[in-house]
Design brief:
about 220 residues, alpha/beta, 9 helices
């Protein structure tokens, strides 16, 4: 496996943090890495460095230029809402076929490691007819599913696993990312997910400082590639 799609059970769960950690681990091993977040919402060009796109570029060791931003994230919208709404409010839309073609081109040309990060959760609408799930089905990459440890995360995670399994998609690993202040522990959440995950590797990632990407869980994810 040399290419993965990083998705999650919802927004602000930790997709980009996991993607950055994976990129850093692979680069530290001498691997050549390409990474894309083709669709991003809540993107403000004035604070591009703080965006998911900006953080991915930093992890890749690439400069924050308009050209590089466009290469990594061709579909960028200002409002921090679902992509279909954000695009509609800007009087535009996401061309689903073009989005898939963009990803297939990246998959076809990558020479070593490729990380594609999704947007929102697996059922977030991209347009009037397609969700992130449809996107994942079209490009058919192994998935890294990032979940939280908040109360309610178990239902969200097991529902996501069920939907993914029903659509014959492969999950490389589930990463349970610690939710600060949750009434339930990271360990208990990960253990419960593990019992229902049908042999899928489940990794428990504690809440780490923003710049601390060198962690055994990140190394374990990199080992999958």
């Amino acid at each position: 496996m040399t290419a993965v799609f990083v998705t999650s059970t919802g927004t602000d769960i930790g997709k980009t943090f996991v993607a950055r950690g994976l990129i850093q681990q692979l680069r530290a091993r001498g691997r050549t890495v390409e990474a894309f977040k083709p669709v991003i919402t809540g993107f403000d060009p004035r604070t591009a460095h703080a965006s998911d796109t900006g953080r991915l570029l930093a992890a890749l060791g690439r400069t924050l230029t308009p050209e590089h931003i466009s290469e990594v994230s061709p579909y960028r919208f200002r409002e921090p809402v679902s992509p279909d709404l954000a695009a509609r409010h800007e009087g535009t839309g996401i061309d689903f076929k073009a989005l898939n073609a963009f990803c297939r081109t990246a998959i076809g040309r990558h020479k070593d490691a490729l990380v594609i990060e999704g947007v929102g959760g697996i059922m977030v609408p991209l347009d009037a007819h397609h969700t992130v799930l449809d996107w994942m089905i079209e490009i058919d990459l192994p998935l890294i599913l990032v979940a939280g440890s908040y109360v309610g995360a178990l239902s969200h995670t097991l529902s996501a696993l069920d939907v993914i399994e029903r659509n014959d998609l492969k999950i490389a690993a589930v990463v349970v990312s610690e939710t600060v202040g949750s009434a339930t522990s990271l360990a208990d959440t990960a253990d419960t997910v593990r019992r229902f995950a049908n042999g899928i590797e489940v990794l428990a990632l504690p809440r780490l400082p923003e710049g601390m990407l060198d962690h055994p869980v990140m190394a374990a994810i990199a080992d999958l590639m």
